[in-house]
Specification:
Elements lengths: L4 H24 L2 E12 L2 E11 L8 E8 L4 E9 L5 E2 L19 E11 L7 E7 L17 E7 L19 E3 L3 E4 L10 E7 L28 E2 L6 E4 L5 E13 L2 E15 L7 E2 L16 E5 L4 E8 L6 E5 L6 E6 L4 E8 L7 E11 L7 E11 L20
Parallel strand pairs: 9-15, 17-23
Antiparallel strand pairs: 1-2, 1-15, 2-6, 3-4, 3-7, 4-6, 5-6, 7-8, 8-15, 10-13, 11-14, 12-13, 14-15, 16-18, 18-21, 19-22, 20-21, 22-23
């Protein structure tokens, strides 16, 4: 067989480029979730924090990134360099004890948290500050997007410096990389807290490729309906609690949740978290947690998760957790309010905790916290996060104070 050497040589660069593109596509698709938040650390000074969740089977992230910072009103168009924070990356794969993970070079699953921080000065009087970060590329395993590995990943946070001289954004406390089994009832909450005590409003929004480009969803999926009719998702706008029933087939879907922050009825900031849920072929039943002072029900949630309480009166109740499979259970919470959650028992097949809190006048209105229950099933642990809401009302019978004692001399009026 004769070979045309000239044609062969001309084709080699094309072949190399083709192989390089395959290699990049296979190894660069590592984005599983991210969010950008900010913390006021002084007059006009903000600590910008990027939290990035990486699929360990993809390429390793950089040790620093640039977060774009802009304001059309103030003519601001710059960026802040955020560097890898001390103690990171952190391996956060929800594996049972002793199970190998992909982050250490073996195992099927592997998730790492990379946190970056940097400080920037932002002037007052800017109602439209945007802090945005873009990364390539999304996870190739996603089933709700068109060619996900070719789509970029973008998250942002907004700040209004025209209203308050020093505001910190809401922050996400709970990990955003849950794995769930076929047909499982899923209860999840990002565990958002706000150090300033501002009012929060949650919503499902379209995920983004950039500040102006929406993610290309597959037919039947979009931001408000991220899993379409396959597994309809509900989200509580007051607490951010997410619930759905997982389908009975392998499925990877992305969800973007926006958290708006209001003070005295005025929008002063917002943040977005982009995350993914992974449904796998397993039969483990994730543990459940009861409502206040309710019996443990291995079949699902029971009791009330919404309570009323009065200012200055201590409210206490028990939370019971159980597991239908009899696995060991651990309980954790997001410290969403200033009360105390005391773990009274952890183990198998039940666990228990007692919550106590004495609200003040500053707590009047809706307050909430989250409790996460986790078993030790292998290879991936079963996890559910439950939301407890407390409506604090003014005390209808406040204590009567006569004021300080006074000395009155005999004969005086």
């Amino acid at each position: 067989m004769k070979v045309n050497l000239r044609k062969l040589l001309r084709s080699i660069p094309i072949l190399i480029l083709f192989m390089l593109c395959i290699s990049i596509d296979a190894n660069a698709t590592h984005s599983m979730g991210a969010d950008v938040t900010y913390e006021c650390v002084g007059p006009n000074q903000y600590l910008v924090r990027l939290s990035f969740y990486r699929d360990c089977r993809g390429i390793e992230p950089y040790n620093s990134y640039n977060v774009a910072v802009s304001s059309a009103t103030c003519g601001l168009n710059t960026s802040v360099t955020v560097n890898l924070a001390s103690g990171f990356p952190e391996e956060v794969t929800p594996l049972c004890p002793g199970e190998p993970d992909a982050c250490s070079g073996s195992g099927t699953y592997g998730v790492e948290l990379w946190v970056y921080e940097g400080t920037i000065s932002i002037p007052m009087g800017c109602p439209d500050v945007v802090m945005g970060w873009t990364e390539c590329c999304r996870n190739n395993a996603i089933t709700t997007l068109v060619n996900p590995g070719s789509q970029d990943f973008y998250v942002e946070a907004n700040l209004n410096t025209n209203i308050t001289p020093c505001n910190s954004s809401p922050v996400f406390v709970n990990l955003p990389t849950p794995f769930v089994c076929f047909n499982q009832d899923v209860n999840y909450n990002h565990g958002v807290t706000d150090v300033d005590g501002d009012s929060l409003v949650f919503s499902l929004v379209d995920c983004q490729e950039s500040a102006t480009v929406t993610t290309n969803y597959d037919t039947g999926f979009n931001g408000p309906a991220p899993f379409g009719t396959v597994a309809p998702v509900t989200l509580d706008p007051n607490t951010g609690a997410i619930s759905f029933t997982a389908p009975n087939f392998q499925f990877v879907g992305v969800i973007c949740v926006k958290v708006e922050e209001y003070r005295n009825g005025i929008l002063i900031g917002e943040v977005v978290r982009d995350m993914q849920f992974t449904v796998i072929n397993c039969t483990n039943e994730a543990p459940t947690a009861s409502g206040a002072d309710s019996p443990c029900d291995p079949g699902g949630p029971s009791g009330s998760y919404l309570l009323d309480a009065c200012v200055a009166e201590t409210v206490c109740f028990d939370i019971l957790a159980c597991d239908a499979d009899g696995d060991n259970i651990t309980i954790d919470w997001n410290n969403g309010v200033d009360g105390d959650l005391i773990i009274t028992n952890q183990g198998t097949p039940n666990a228990a905790a007692e919550f106590c809190w004495t609200p003040t006048e500053a707590d009047v209105g809706l307050n909430f916290f989250t409790v996460t229950v986790r078993d030790e099933a292998c290879p991936l642990t079963g996890v559910n996060t439950f939301t407890y809401s407390l409506e604090i009302i003014p005390n209808p019978n406040p204590p009567v104070l006569a004021g300080p004692d006074q000395n009155i001399c005999v004969g005086e009026t």
